[in-house]
Amino acid sequence: MPTADRKLSTRENIALENAVHALRDGQVIACPTEAVWGLSCDPHNAAALTRLVRMKAREPAKGVIVVAASIAQLEPWLKGLPYALYAPLLASWPGPVTWLVPDNGTAHVLVRGDHACVALRVTDHPGMQALCQAFGGPLVSTSANRAGEPPAMSATEARAIFGAESGGELGAIVAGELGGRTRPSQIRDLASGRVLRA
Questions:
Q1: How far is residue 99's CA from residue 89's CA, in Å, rounded to a whole number?
Q2: Which of 100, 135, 164, 170 is 20 to 30 A from 29 via CA?
Q3: DSSP 62-124
Q4: What is the pLDDT along the chain (198 residues), one digit of tens a residue?
Protein backbone atom coordinates (compact mmCIF):
# COMPACT_ATOMS: atom_id res chain seq x y z
CA MET A 1 0.00 0.00 0.00
CA PRO A 2 1.15 3.56 -0.63
CA THR A 3 2.59 6.09 1.74
CA ALA A 4 1.32 9.63 1.61
CA ASP A 5 4.18 10.91 -0.53
CA ARG A 6 4.43 8.40 -3.37
CA LYS A 7 2.35 6.84 -6.10
CA LEU A 8 1.43 3.18 -6.35
CA SER A 9 3.78 0.90 -8.26
CA THR A 10 2.42 -1.32 -11.02
CA ARG A 11 2.58 -4.31 -8.67
CA GLU A 12 0.69 -2.41 -5.95
CA ASN A 13 -1.94 -1.31 -8.48
CA ILE A 14 -2.50 -4.93 -9.51
CA ALA A 15 -2.78 -5.97 -5.84
CA LEU A 16 -5.27 -3.16 -5.21
CA GLU A 17 -7.32 -4.17 -8.26
CA ASN A 18 -7.38 -7.78 -7.02
CA ALA A 19 -8.56 -6.62 -3.60
CA VAL A 20 -11.30 -4.46 -5.09
CA HIS A 21 -12.43 -7.35 -7.30
CA ALA A 22 -12.65 -9.58 -4.20
CA LEU A 23 -14.61 -6.92 -2.30
CA ARG A 24 -17.09 -6.49 -5.16
CA ASP A 25 -17.42 -10.26 -5.30
CA GLY A 26 -18.63 -10.27 -1.69
CA GLN A 27 -15.42 -11.55 -0.18
CA VAL A 28 -13.50 -10.48 2.93
CA ILE A 29 -9.96 -9.16 2.57
CA ALA A 30 -7.12 -8.50 5.01
CA CYS A 31 -5.19 -5.23 4.99
CA PRO A 32 -3.03 -3.07 7.25
CA THR A 33 -4.74 -0.24 9.14
CA GLU A 34 -3.67 2.48 11.55
CA ALA A 35 -2.69 0.19 14.46
CA VAL A 36 -3.32 -3.48 13.55
CA TRP A 37 -4.09 -5.66 10.56
CA GLY A 38 -7.77 -5.58 9.72
CA LEU A 39 -10.50 -7.32 7.82
CA SER A 40 -12.60 -5.38 5.34
CA CYS A 41 -15.69 -6.02 3.24
CA ASP A 42 -18.49 -4.16 1.49
CA PRO A 43 -20.77 -2.70 4.21
CA HIS A 44 -23.80 -3.07 1.91
CA ASN A 45 -23.26 -6.74 1.04
CA ALA A 46 -25.21 -8.98 3.42
CA ALA A 47 -23.35 -12.14 2.39
CA ALA A 48 -19.97 -10.49 2.93
CA LEU A 49 -21.01 -9.17 6.34
CA THR A 50 -22.29 -12.60 7.36
CA ARG A 51 -19.00 -14.15 6.21
CA LEU A 52 -17.02 -11.57 8.20
CA VAL A 53 -18.98 -12.17 11.41
CA ARG A 54 -18.59 -15.93 11.00
CA MET A 55 -14.84 -15.68 10.32
CA LYS A 56 -14.26 -13.65 13.45
CA ALA A 57 -16.76 -15.64 15.54
CA ARG A 58 -17.98 -12.18 16.49
CA GLU A 59 -21.24 -11.50 18.30
CA PRO A 60 -23.48 -9.88 15.63
CA ALA A 61 -25.00 -7.55 18.21
CA LYS A 62 -21.69 -5.68 18.52
CA GLY A 63 -21.70 -4.14 15.04
CA VAL A 64 -18.59 -3.04 13.14
CA ILE A 65 -16.82 0.17 12.13
CA VAL A 66 -17.16 1.67 8.65
CA VAL A 67 -14.22 3.68 7.29
CA ALA A 68 -13.95 5.95 4.27
CA ALA A 69 -11.35 7.91 2.33
CA SER A 70 -13.30 11.17 2.66
CA ILE A 71 -16.35 12.60 4.34
CA ALA A 72 -17.97 12.73 0.88
CA GLN A 73 -17.93 8.91 0.79
CA LEU A 74 -19.96 8.91 4.02
CA GLU A 75 -22.61 11.40 2.88
CA PRO A 76 -25.34 8.71 2.49
CA TRP A 77 -24.68 7.66 6.11
CA LEU A 78 -24.77 11.30 7.29
CA LYS A 79 -27.88 12.38 5.40
CA GLY A 80 -30.34 14.08 7.73
CA LEU A 81 -27.71 14.83 10.36
CA PRO A 82 -28.21 18.29 11.91
CA TYR A 83 -25.73 20.75 10.47
CA ALA A 84 -24.32 21.62 13.92
CA LEU A 85 -23.18 18.02 14.39
CA TYR A 86 -20.91 18.20 11.35
CA ALA A 87 -18.41 20.43 13.21
CA PRO A 88 -16.82 17.68 15.34
CA LEU A 89 -16.62 15.38 12.32
CA LEU A 90 -14.86 18.01 10.22
CA ALA A 91 -12.53 18.88 13.09
CA SER A 92 -11.35 15.30 13.66
CA TRP A 93 -11.43 13.71 10.19
CA PRO A 94 -9.35 12.35 8.63
CA GLY A 95 -7.94 10.96 11.84
CA PRO A 96 -8.12 8.39 14.63
CA VAL A 97 -11.60 9.23 15.93
CA THR A 98 -14.54 6.93 15.25
CA TRP A 99 -17.87 8.67 15.77
CA LEU A 100 -21.12 6.96 16.71
CA VAL A 101 -23.62 8.62 14.38
CA PRO A 102 -27.40 8.06 14.56
CA ASP A 103 -28.33 5.51 11.89
CA ASN A 104 -30.54 7.03 9.20
CA GLY A 105 -31.51 3.64 7.79
CA THR A 106 -28.40 3.22 5.62
CA ALA A 107 -26.61 0.73 7.89
CA HIS A 108 -27.16 -3.02 7.51
CA VAL A 109 -28.12 -4.65 10.81
CA LEU A 110 -24.73 -6.46 10.95
CA VAL A 111 -22.98 -3.09 10.62
CA ARG A 112 -25.12 -1.40 13.26
CA GLY A 113 -25.57 -4.40 15.55
CA ASP A 114 -28.03 -3.85 18.39
CA HIS A 115 -27.34 -0.12 18.40
CA ALA A 116 -29.20 2.96 17.21
CA CYS A 117 -25.94 4.41 15.90
CA VAL A 118 -23.36 3.41 13.32
CA ALA A 119 -19.60 3.73 13.92
CA LEU A 120 -17.97 5.87 11.19
CA ARG A 121 -14.45 7.15 10.57
CA VAL A 122 -12.58 8.92 7.79
CA THR A 123 -9.21 7.21 7.91
CA ASP A 124 -5.88 8.96 7.61
CA HIS A 125 -4.06 5.70 6.78
CA PRO A 126 -2.82 6.12 3.17
CA GLY A 127 -3.35 2.45 2.30
CA MET A 128 -6.92 2.37 3.62
CA GLN A 129 -7.61 5.65 1.83
CA ALA A 130 -6.33 4.15 -1.43
CA LEU A 131 -8.42 1.03 -0.92
CA CYS A 132 -11.63 2.99 -0.26
CA GLN A 133 -10.93 5.25 -3.25
CA ALA A 134 -10.31 2.27 -5.53
CA PHE A 135 -13.44 0.53 -4.25
CA GLY A 136 -15.44 3.72 -4.70
CA GLY A 137 -16.91 3.91 -1.24
CA PRO A 138 -16.56 3.11 2.44
CA LEU A 139 -15.57 -0.29 3.79
CA VAL A 140 -16.02 -2.24 6.98
CA SER A 141 -12.83 -2.21 9.05
CA THR A 142 -12.42 -4.57 11.98
CA SER A 143 -9.38 -6.19 13.54
CA ALA A 144 -8.06 -9.36 11.90
CA ASN A 145 -8.57 -11.90 14.67
CA ARG A 146 -11.00 -14.43 16.05
CA ALA A 147 -13.13 -13.07 18.89
CA GLY A 148 -11.16 -12.90 22.12
CA GLU A 149 -7.79 -13.40 20.43
CA PRO A 150 -5.12 -10.73 19.76
CA PRO A 151 -5.25 -9.02 16.35
CA ALA A 152 -2.86 -9.89 13.55
CA MET A 153 0.08 -7.49 13.32
CA SER A 154 1.33 -8.63 9.90
CA ALA A 155 0.20 -10.29 6.68
CA THR A 156 1.89 -13.47 7.87
CA GLU A 157 -0.19 -13.50 11.05
CA ALA A 158 -3.39 -12.77 9.09
CA ARG A 159 -2.65 -15.75 6.82
CA ALA A 160 -1.96 -17.94 9.85
CA ILE A 161 -5.36 -17.08 11.33
CA PHE A 162 -7.54 -17.10 8.23
CA GLY A 163 -5.59 -18.99 5.58
CA ALA A 164 -4.03 -17.87 2.32
CA GLU A 165 -5.97 -16.19 -0.45
CA SER A 166 -6.35 -19.49 -2.30
CA GLY A 167 -8.23 -22.06 -0.27
CA GLY A 168 -8.52 -19.94 2.88
CA GLU A 169 -11.20 -17.61 4.17
CA LEU A 170 -9.72 -14.45 2.64
CA GLY A 171 -10.45 -13.16 -0.84
CA ALA A 172 -7.23 -11.12 -0.90
CA ILE A 173 -4.43 -9.88 1.32
CA VAL A 174 -3.25 -6.35 0.57
CA ALA A 175 0.41 -5.79 1.37
CA GLY A 176 1.44 -2.68 3.23
CA GLU A 177 2.54 -1.14 6.49
CA LEU A 178 0.66 -0.36 9.67
CA GLY A 179 0.04 3.30 10.41
CA GLY A 180 2.26 3.37 13.48
CA ARG A 181 -0.43 3.90 16.09
CA THR A 182 -0.18 1.83 19.27
CA ARG A 183 -3.88 1.66 20.05
CA PRO A 184 -7.22 1.48 18.20
CA SER A 185 -9.13 4.63 17.28
CA GLN A 186 -10.94 6.61 19.93
CA ILE A 187 -14.71 6.04 19.86
CA ARG A 188 -17.01 8.95 20.70
CA ASP A 189 -20.75 9.49 20.68
CA LEU A 190 -21.59 12.31 18.29
CA ALA A 191 -24.75 13.48 20.05
CA SER A 192 -23.16 13.81 23.50
CA GLY A 193 -19.43 13.99 22.75
CA ARG A 194 -18.89 11.26 25.34
CA VAL A 195 -15.76 9.11 24.90
CA LEU A 196 -16.64 5.41 24.87
CA ARG A 197 -13.14 4.16 24.04
CA ALA A 198 -10.14 6.32 24.84
A1: 8
A2: 100
A3: G--EEEESSGGGGHHHHTT--GGGHHHHHHH-SSSEEEEEE--S-S-HHHHTTSSEEEEEE--
A4: 444 445 666 666 777 899 999 999 999 999 999 999 999 999 999 999 999 999 999 999 999 999 999 999 999 999 999 988 999 999 999 999 999 999 999 999 999 999 999 999 999 999 999 999 999 999 999 999 999 999 999 999 999 999 866 668 999 999 889 999 988 889 999 999 899 887
3 state DSSP class of 116: coil
Interstrand relation of 65-68 and 117-122 (parallel, antiparallel or unpaired): parallel
CA atoms in the 13 A half-sphere facing the CB of 99:
27
**Amino acid residing at 22:** A
Strand locations in 6-147 (E): 29-32, 37-40, 65-68, 97-102, 117-122, 139-143
What are the structural domain ranges in the chain? Answer: 10-197
Please list the residues that pair with 37 across neighbouring strands.
32
Q: Round to whole Å and give the CA distance between 174 and 1.
A: 7
